[in-house]
Design goal:
This protein is an all-alpha fold. The protein has 8 helices and no strands.
């Protein structure tokens, strides 16, 4: 067996569940997250990249995933499925935990905004790093984050005074 095959097997066995959980933040619940991970692994290893260990492979797959989401969003069929899923979901009872609420709110964002939010608050990347990874201008990333923050604030019922700028941040990341 070649080295890359061993790395893929170890990646799936050791890190597969983490990658799927990361994928769910990008695409919402369902089988799409597993498909995203599969597609990202295929794209990562299809070109014979020089990946020698599982850590490097996981980092590369995580980097590919938001790009795949954005690429998918350009297709009409993907947009149709996303819209249909959003309308089919009903708001659950008050017993849902905050994590479920956050994932539900993330699923309402357009793909680029969602990718920027996940990279910023879950991967802890800076605006310049996000811009470089997604091939966007820093100002565009800031705009996506601002728009997403407003949407998430209203979805998650964050209290704010009228006209006050709302900033949604992950715990312990204030002031960045």
């Amino acid at each position: 067996m070649r080295d890359w095959q061993e790395i893929v097997e170890r990646l799936v066995a050791e890190r597969g569940s983490r990658l799927v959980a990361y994928g769910r933040m990008l695409v919402g619940p369902g089988d799409d997250a597993e498909d995203l991970v599969h597609d990202a692994i295929v794209k990562t290893f299809a070109r014979g990249r020089n990946i020698h260990d599982v850590d490097h492979a996981e980092a590369y797959v995580r980097r590919v995933m938001p790009t795949l989401i954005i690429d998918r969003s350009r297709s009409r069929a993907a947009r149709s499925r996303t819209t249909q899923r959003a309308f089919e979901r009903e708001r659950g009872g008050a017993d849902l935990d905050a994590g479920v609420d956050v994932r539900r709110a993330l699923s309402t964002l357009p793909p680029r905004e969602r990718a920027c939010v996940v990279l910023r608050f879950f991967d802890d990347l800076t605006v310049p790093q996000i811009a470089a990874q997604l091939g966007l201008a820093e100002g565009t990333v800031k705009r996506y984050l601002a728009d997403a923050s407003g949407t998430l604030a209203s979805q998650l019922a964050v209290d704010a005074e009228p006209g006050e700028k709302v900033r949604v941040s992950a715990p312990g990341k204030e002031g960045r």
